[in-house]
Amino acid sequence: MMDRENNRAAQRASEAAVQRCIEPACGALYGIRERLYVCARCNGPLEIECRLGTSEDAAQLSKKWEVRLASPDARDRSGVWRYRELLPFEEGVPIVTLAEGNTPVYDAPLSAQYCGLPALRLKHQGCNPTGSFKDAGMTAAVTQAVLLGARTVACASTGNTAASLAAYAARAGLQCAVLVPTGQITAAKLAQSIDYGAVICEIEGNFDDCMRLIQEVSDDPSIYMANSINPFRIEGQKTVAFELMQQCQWRVPDHIVVPGGNMGNSSALGKGFGELRGLGLIQRLPKISIVQAEGAAPLARLFAGLDARRAVPLPDSLVPVENPQTLATAIKIGSPVSWKKALRAVLESSGQVLTVSEQEIADAKAMVGRDGIGCEPASATTVAGIRKLTATGHIRREESVVAILTGHMLKDPDYVNQYHRGTLPLGSTTHGPATAPRIAGAFRNVPKQVAATKSAILECLQRQE
Ligand SMILES: Cc1ncc(COP(=O)(O)O)c(C=O)c1O
C-alpha cells in the first residue's frame, strides 16, 4: 500500500504539471486531473505547479507569443490560451473560450494627476466578454470541468463570477448553478446570469454564507465548483500578468495595484509574475498591492498587525469580518478564501495591503470616468489606493504604476447615477432611507433639464464652460 503511494508520488513529481498543497508542512502532490479544490490531506490551499523550462526556452516562448498576436487560430485569439505553454492542459484539448483577455492598457492622465503622479496606466479587465476579469479564469476552469466530465458547474458570487461562469457554461453546454446573496448583487450582473441560462439560487445571507454553502454542495461528484479556491481559475487569471508584460514590452512596472475581495485575482497575479521571473522573462517582481474597502478589509487588518519583513511562515489564520459592508458590492467579502496566497504575493513582492473609504472609492471612480474609461466601484479602489500610497511615499512620483480595473462601468449603473445626482447613501445599501448620510460627490455631473429649443441648449452649454 505504502509502495503504491510512493510510486504514485514519484510519478506525479515527474509530470509536466501537478497540484501541490502550499502548506510548507504538507506539500502533498496530486495529479492534474484529480478533482480537488483543497488538499485532501491537510485542507490547505492547492496550487498548480507547471514545470517551467530554461531561459533559453523562454526567449523562444516570448517570440512564439508575439507571432500568435496575428494568428486567426481560436486559441491564439484568446488572451489566455495564447500562453498555453504555461497552462496545465495538454496540447490539443478542446477549450471553452469566448476570446477572453486582449484587454487594453490605457494611459489615464486625469486619474494620474488625481493620484499625484505624472503617469498612470489602467489595465481594463472589464473589457472581457462578460465585463469582468473573471473570464480569464473561467475559460480554464470550465475547460477543466469538461475534461473531468462534470455535468454541472457552480459558484458562489457577488455577481461577476456568476455572470462569467454562466456564460462559459452555456458555451460548454453544461448546467450552471450560482449562489448569490439575496438583494446584494447589482441588477446588471443578475441580468447576465439570467440571460446566459444559469439556475440562480438567491440565498438569505451574505457572500460568505454562499461560499460556505457552495463548498458543501460541490462535495457532490456531479458538481464542479468554479470559485477561485479552484486552482484552475488561478491558472487562467495568472495569464493577465503575461499579457500585461507583453503589452509593456517586458518592462516591469514598479507597482501593480488590485482590489481585494476573495483574493483570487491578487493570488493569480502573484503567481503569474513569479512564473515569468522563474523563466527569466522578467528579472524582478512588481510590487503587488491590494486595496480593500474599509468595511470589508480582513486582510488589511491582518497586514497592519504583521511585521512584513518577518512574516515567514505566513500566519495560520485570518480573523474574518463578520458583517462586511461596502457599496462596492463585488468586494463585500469578510472571509476571503485565497487570503494566504494573496498575502504571499504581497510579501514576496514587498507590496502593501491597505483600505480606502466609501467616499474615496466613489470619487476615484468618477475620476476614472473623466478619463473616458469608467469602471465599476470595486475597481476604483485601485485608483483611490494609489492616491493614498503616493501620499504616504510608498509609491514615488518617478515610479511606474499599473492599476488593474476589474469590472466594466455598466456593471453598476445605479451607483453611477446616484453618485452624480448626490443620492448615493453612505450606508451599506444603495436603497437606504432618504435621511441616510450621502456620499458628497466631488466630481458630480448632474443631468440638466433643458427647454426643447436651440437657444436653451446653447445657453446651457455656455453655462457649463
Ligand atoms: C469587479 C470586481 N473587482 C474585484 C473583485 C475581487 O476579486 P477577488 O475576489 O479575486 O479578490 C471582484 C470579485 O468578485 C469583482 O467582481
What does this protein look like?
This protein is of the alpha/beta class and 465 residues long. Among the domains are: 2-50, no CATH class; 105-131 and 231-414, Rossmann fold (3-Layer(aba) Sandwich), CATH 3.40.50. It has 16 helices and 13 strands. The protein has a six-stranded mixed beta sheet, sandwiched between helices. Strands 8-7-6-9 form a four-stranded parallel beta sheet. Helix 10 crosses helix 12 (339-349) and helix 13 (358-370) crosses helix 14 (377-391). The longest helix is centred in the middle third of the chain and has 17 residues, at 231-247. The radius of gyration is 22 Å and the shape is globular. The mean pLDDT is 94. Bound molecules: pyridoxal-5'-phosphate (PLP).
List the helices and strands and how they pair.
Layout: H1 2-14, E1 17-21, E2 29-30, E3 46-50, H2 55-68, H3 74-77, E4 105-107, H4 109-115, E5 121-124, H5 134-147, E6 152-156, H6 160-172, E7 175-181, H7 187-195, E8 199-203, H8 207-217, E9 223-225, H9 231-247, E10 255-259, H10 264-279, E11 287-293, H11 298-304, H12 339-349, E12 353-356, H13 358-370, H14 377-391, E13 401-405, H15 413-421, H16 454-464
Parallel strand pairs: 5-13, 6-7, 6-9, 7-8, 10-11, 10-13, 11-12
Antiparallel strand pairs: 1-2, 1-3, 4-5
Helix pairs in contact: 4-14, 5-6, 5-9, 6-7, 9-10, 10-12, 13-14
The structure holds pyridoxal-5'-phosphate.
